[in-house]
Design a protein that fits this description.
Layout: E1 5-9, H1 14-23, E2 29-33, H2 49-64, E3 67-77, E4 84-85, H3 98-109, E5 116-127, E6 133-144, E7 160-162, H4 174-180, H5 182-198
Parallel strand pairs: 1-2, 1-3
Antiparallel strand pairs: 3-4, 3-5, 5-6, 6-7
Length: 207
C-alpha cells in the first residue's frame, strides 16, 4: 500500500528510470513507473525537448490521476549543428541499439576536426492531474571522444567526456553522475516547484 505522495515517472527507458528513482529518493515520496502500472501507451513526440516532455507528463497525469514527471533529453554536438538533439534516441533508426547510435555518431563526426564539443540537455516536466504544468532544464557540457570509455550509464555516455572531469559519463560512479548530469540538474531546478506542488519538504541536491 502506498503511504506517501505518489509521483509517476513517465518513461519506459530503464536507464532513465534508474537515475530518476535515485534522484527522487526522498522520504514521503512514493515513486511508481509506467511498468508498475502496466501502461504500454506511447506518446507522439513533438519538435523539441519541452514539447516532448510536456506531452508525456500531461498525457499520463490525466490518464492515471497521479502527479507525473517526464523528461526529454538529447546530445547536441556542435560540429553537427546541434544534432542529434531531440532525435538522439532515433539517430540510427527506431530499432537501433545504443551501440548502433554511438557507432553512427562517430562515423558522422569523422570529417570534422577535434575537439568535438557537445552537451547533454534535458527538459523536465511536472504535470498534475488537474492540468498544471511546470518545466525545468539542465545542461551538462563536454565533448565527444573517438573511442568508448567506461561501462556505466547508458546511451551516449561512453563517448561523452564531461567538462572538467577527464572522464566520460560512463566512467563516473552512479552517485557522481547523479550530481552533475543534465538530468540531475533539471531535477534540481524542478525541486523548488515540486516541493509545494506535492506538499513535501524535500532536501536540495547539491552539485
Amino acid at each position: 500500500m502506498m503511504t506517501g505522495k505518489m509521483l509517476l515517472i513517465a518513461t519506459a527507458n530503464v536507464g532513465k528510470l534508474r537515475e530518476m528513482r535515485a534522484l527522487l529518493d526522498f522520504a514521503g515520496l512514493e515513486l511508481v513507473s509506467l511498468a508498475d502500472l502496466r501502461i504500454l501507451q506511447e506518446v507522439e513526440e513533438g519538435s523539441d525537448y519541452a514539447e516532448n516532455a510536456r506531452r508525456k507528463a500531461a498525457t499520463f497525469a490525466v490518464r492515471t490521476g497521479f502527479w507525473t514527471i517526464a523528461d526529454d533529453s538529447g546530445l547536441e554536438v556542435d560540429a553537427l549543428g546541434g544534432a542529434p538533439g531531440p532525435h538522439s534516441a532515433r539517430l540510427a533508426g527506431p530499432q537501433a541499439s545504443d551501440a548502433d547510435r554511438r557507432r553512427l555518431l562517430l562515423e558522422l563526426l569523422q570529417p570534422f576536426p577535434r575537439p568535438w564539443t557537445a552537451r547533454f540537455r534535458c527538459t523536465m516536466a511536472l504535470a498534475g492531474p488537474e492540468g498544471s504544468l511546470d518545466l525545468a532544464t539542465g545542461v551538462c557540457e563536454g565533448e565527444i571522444v573517438p573511442a568508448e570509455r567506461g561501462s556505466g550509464g547508458f546511451g551516449y555516455d561512453p563517448l561523452f567526456l564531461v567538462a572538467g572531469r577527464n572522464r566520460t559519463m560512463a566512467e563516473l560512479l552512479e552517485v557522481e553522475k547523479n550530481l552533475i548530469s543534465h538530468r540531475a540538474r533539471a531535477v534540481r531546478a524542478l525541486l523548488p516547484i515540486l516541493r509545494p506542488r506535492l506538499g513535501l519538504k524535500l532536501p536540495s541536491i547539491d552539485p
